[in-house]
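Lecture 7 notes: from sequence to structure.

We start with a single chain of 351 residues. Read the sequence below before looking at the structure.
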Amino acid sequence: METRIARLYGERDLKLEWMDVSEPGEGEVLLHMAAGGICGSDLHYYKDGGFGPVRVREPIIPGHEASGFVARLGAGVSGLAIGQLVAVNPSQPCGHCLYCEKNLPIHCLNMRFMGSAMRLPHEQGMFRDAMVVPARQCVPAGDLVSPGEAACAEPLAVCLHAVANAGDVEGKRVLVTGSGPIGTLVVAALKHHGASEIVATDLSDAALERAAAMGATRTINVGRDAAELAAFEVDKGQFDVVFECSAAAAAIRVAMATVRPRGTIVQVGVTGDITIPLNMIVAKELRIHGTQRFHDEFAVAVRLIANRQIDVRPIISHEFALDEVTAAFEKASDRSAACKVQLTFSAGRPG
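Now the structure, written as tokens:
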């Protein structure tokens, strides 16, 4: 059996090709892929050839946010059925390294993450019509939601993990800086966990409209109305927690100025080296918490999406067929028009 794949060779060098697909072995399933979301890291690979020290050094199939239909079961697989829609967990910790044994699989020393150029050889991703994956990576997504919704489980899992790193947010006043796909899903996770006030910022009105649809109680366009943030700096800061999702230096300074003394800033966005106001961290005794990826949160994300306790449909802005993959990446690069751009695949639901 052959399948179409999208393969990236370097900056803006993305080709649609064919490759063989094997039969599923023991503990594996063959999936007919259904939907796949283009993530920020995929965009960095496409536009810049990588980000920071992580570079595309050999051809790679991108894609780590995806769903598919179970087409065939390998030996020993239980709990899955032919035709079932599943979200695919791209994270594969080894289970036996120093950090896995300390129950910190997010920091696995031998982590395999689909569609990642961090390791060499690169870990190939899911932008293809069909693929074989370990059955343990497949989480049933039910019959209520679309494949595109199920494919949002990975970014939602990232956001659920970020919110968990802040501790109990119920009844808290929270600022979210940056309302791209991750920022808007952080908003949704905060609403789900009972935050009383959620202020979201961005430079784009379209992004802020999506943040409001996902649960923000107030939105501020910082390109036009940045002065509105001054009210949140009164008395050394008004927010209990800030989720900084933009990685912009100006937004990080806003986070530190508007969070209360001994408040928490969860840094979600990533960038290179930047200058930060260290004196403010010291004077306000701030807690700065980094966050990355997820573990148990993936299954939780699938469940919340599957029963629409968190409705992700407002963030899905565009869909493209796999043979339009270059156009899809170009559209995803335009934040003024796009939020979550997804690819759809042609194999379809089995029989």
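The chain has ten helices and 19 strands. Keep this in mind for problem set 3.
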